[in-house]
Amino acid sequence: MALNFAKAEFVRAAASQKDFLRDTMPQFAFAGRSNVGKSSVINRLTGRKNLAYVGASPGKTTQINYFRVDGRAYLVDLPGYGYAKVSREEKERWGRLMEAYFQDEAGLITLGVLIVDARHKPTANDQVMHDWFRQTGCPEIVVANKVDKLKKSQVEPALALIRETLELTERDTLVPFSAEKGIGKEELAGLLSAACEN
Ligand code: GDP
């Protein structure tokens, strides 16, 4: 049965490993660089304006936010990366937290959702995050957000550049998306629902 994304609620924020959720529900881990629109994608998916916090001080919060969807799965909002004005201590805190989550012995991640900017070649940091997902062995969906900012003729070449740069394989799915316009919402919701059945 399809996940009802409208039934979404904030569960907790984890700043360290002891606060990670460890029940049997699938965890969909959302990652992306600051300002790529990760909060907006989560808000669009759940049809809620403010479930995930949009904007303000990117990179300021080094925590993992958990949202329960339909009582059946977690959207795991990983802290954004690549924000230039972050202190060294904060970058280190970010690294420790992410490493703890990705390398947890329990294997916490069911599926990775990497959000990139449809307009640009994926950054070195995007590549690192993609490699981390790959190393977990979980399937990954790459969401090319802000596709509304491209002309129609630019979309295919932009997607090809993302595929090529991240060396996406048959196992990886690339979803053109616009959190602003709602493009790709049904496709992403369908893919996550399907992952929930497996
Ligand atoms: P986060 O830091 O990754 O959580 O990014 P936010 O969700 O806060 O979004 C960053 C900025 O990008 C905000 O000004 C959003 O309104 C804007 N934004 C997010 N998604 C889209 C989109 O699909 N299209 C456009 N045009 N703008 C977007």
What do you see in this structure?
With 198 residues, the protein is α/β, with parallel strands linked by helices. It has a single domain, classed as P-loop containing nucleotide triphosphate hydrolases (Rossmann fold, 3-Layer(aba) Sandwich), CATH 3.40.50. It is 32% helix and 21% strand. It has 5 helices and 7 strands; from the N terminus they run ββαββαβαβαβα. It has a 7-stranded mixed β-sheet, sandwiched between helices. Helix 3 links the parallel strand 5 and strand 6. The structure holds guanosine-5'-diphosphate (GDP). Guanosine-5'-diphosphate binds next to helix 1.
Could you give the topology of this structure?
Blueprint: E1 8-14, E2 27-32, H1 38-46, E3 64-69, E4 73-77, H2 88-102, E5 111-117, H3 124-136, E6 140-145, H4 152-165, E7 173-176, H5 185-197
Parallel strand pairs: 2-4, 2-5, 5-6, 6-7
Antiparallel strand pairs: 1-3, 3-4
Task: Give the count of helical stretches.
Answer: 5
Enter the CATH topology name: Rossmann fold
Small-molecule binders here are: guanosine-5'-diphosphate
Q: What proportion strand?
A: 15-25%
Overall pLDDT confidence: 92
Helix fraction by DSSP (H/I, runs of at least 4)? 25-40%
**SS-based class:** alpha/beta
Q: What is the CATH top level name?
A: Alpha Beta
- What radius of gyration results from the CA coordinates? 16 Å
Short structural description:
This protein has five helices and seven strands; from the N terminus they run E-E-H-E-E-H-E-H-E-H-E-H. It has about 200 residues and is of the alpha/beta class. Strands 1-3-4-2-5-6-7 form a seven-stranded mixed β-sheet, with helices on both faces.
